[in-house]
């Protein structure tokens, strides 16, 4: 009997896991508490000694913060759900269409959230049950931070740990200076100016992190600065026409400065009475942009003597953003998509 080897190439099935931070299932104290507990128990996010942190988290924060934060979520919640989740679903749909149009075939895409639902493991399961054997993990954080991107890597590895086999996996780490990212940001600012006119100053408010994370090696601050400089150049702004700042301080430790809230209070006294403000570290609008920046930030600025405060939406499912995400997928896939 002659045995013939099966030489037919097995076509790889490539899938994409779109990742973001996650959000509560509903804007109730109970669901907010469950979300915060999972998120704030991650040592990558808060790396204090657990013997000190756990009693603070369980004894104080989880007994006080959920009620207050649930009210904030209620103020920005959309009819279809949490803005972060609604936008993520739209991004998934739009990216799927863009890849289909470019490649002439369907590329399975799943959402996976670092905290809350659907989990990263749910997302990977959704891909593998469709026969995917090559996964591109695309965390939607333009700038790498040990508090956001690294937990995605940890969670994917943890998910594979319990499996006999796992899909070949590529991981997109950052895209803070990708030309299509800078172009998408620039386009969104130009479109905003066209509609509303240009303010005296463009504020680029990035999410903050503790200074210690940066001194211990997190490249986040440097990457935010690079994004900001490239964007200012793309828009032809002079140094006096833009500012970088860091929002959302949490806890007692020193965080990156200048802090967005302090800056907003000080600008009117410096003669800057009109600002446009954007959040380039967020791929999707969420509590931190729609409440903290668009609502609370405006109040601080106007109370401090400012006249005009205009929030620029995140890139969300804008076509230029989807073109960037498509490009990131294709760059990661390399020869996987050739066959
Ligand atoms: C505890 C410290 C925190 C660090 C460090 C941090 C980094 C960080 N976060 C984002 C993006 C998002 N954060 C979101 C919510 C959120 N973040 C923190 C704290 C830290 N973030 C908290 C406690 C919360 C929950 C809300 C609150 O209690 O204030 C979200 C989701 C918002 C939503 O709409 O559900 C995003 C997205 C980045 C990019 C980042 C560092 C680079
Ligand atoms: Fe955060
Ligand atoms: Fe926050």
TrEMBL record:
Pathway listed: Porphyrin-containing compound metabolism; protoheme biosynthesis; protoheme from protoporphyrin-IX: step 1/1
EC number(s) given by UniProt: 4.98.1.1
Binding residues annotated for Fe(2+), in chain numbering: 207, 288
Enzyme class: lyase
Keyword Iron in record: yes
Main localisation: cytoplasm
CDD domains: Ferrochelatase_C, Ferrochelatase_N
Localization per record: Cytoplasm
PROSITE patterns per UniProt: FERROCHELATASE (PS00534)
Catalytic activity: Fe-coproporphyrin III + 2 H(+) = coproporphyrin III + Fe(2+); heme b + 2 H(+) = protoporphyrin IX + Fe(2+)
Keyword check for NADP: no
Keywords (A to Z) from UniProt: Cytoplasm, Heme biosynthesis, Iron, Lyase, Metal-binding, Porphyrin biosynthesis
Pfam family membership, one: Ferrochelatase
Sequence similarity: Belongs to the ferrochelatase family.
Protein name: Ferrochelatase
Annotated organism of origin: Shewanella colwelliana
Originating gene: hemH1
């Amino acid at each position: 009997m002659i045995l013939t080897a099966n030489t037919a190439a097995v076509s790889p099935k490539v899938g994409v896991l779109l990742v973001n931070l996650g959000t509560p299932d509903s804007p109730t104290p109970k669901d907010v508490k469950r979300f915060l507990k999972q998120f704030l128990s991650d040592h990558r996010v808060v790396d204090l000694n657990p013997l000190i942190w756990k009693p603070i988290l369980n004894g104080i924060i989880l007994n006080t913060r959920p009620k207050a934060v649930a009210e904030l979520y209620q103020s920005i919640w959309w009819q279809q759900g949490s803005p972060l989740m609604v936008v993520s679903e739209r991004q998934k749909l739009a990216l799927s269409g863009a890849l289909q149009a470019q490649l002439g075939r369907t590329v399975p895409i799943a959402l996976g959230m670092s905290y809350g639902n659907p989990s990263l493991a749910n997302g990977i399961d959704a891909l593998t049950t469709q026969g995917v054997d090559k996964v591109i993990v695309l965390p939607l954080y333009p700038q790498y931070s040990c508090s956001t991107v690294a937990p995605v890597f940890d969670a994917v590895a943890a998910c594979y740990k319990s499996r006999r086999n796992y899909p070949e996996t590529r991981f997109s780490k950052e895209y803070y200076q990708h030309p299509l990212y800078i172009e998408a940001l620039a386009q969104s600012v130009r479109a905003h100016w066209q509609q509303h006119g240009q303010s005296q100053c463009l504020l680029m408010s990035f999410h903050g992190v503790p200074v210690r994370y940066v001194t211990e090696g997190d490249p986040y601050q440097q990457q935010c600065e690079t994004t900001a400089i490239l964007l200012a150049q793309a828009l032809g702004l002079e140094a006096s026409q833009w500012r970088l700042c860091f929002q959302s301080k949490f806890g007692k430790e020193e965080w990156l400065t200048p802090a967005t809230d302090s800056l907003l209070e000080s600008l009117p006294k410096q003669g800057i009475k009109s600002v446009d403000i954007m959040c380039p570290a967020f791929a999707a609008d969420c509590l931190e942009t729609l409440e903290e920046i668009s609502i609370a930030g405006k109040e601080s600025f106007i109370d401090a003597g400012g006249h005009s405060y205009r929030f620029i939406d995140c890139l969300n499912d804008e076509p230029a953003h989807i073109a960037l995400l498509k490009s990131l997928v294709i760059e990661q896939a390399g020869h996987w998509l050739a066959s």
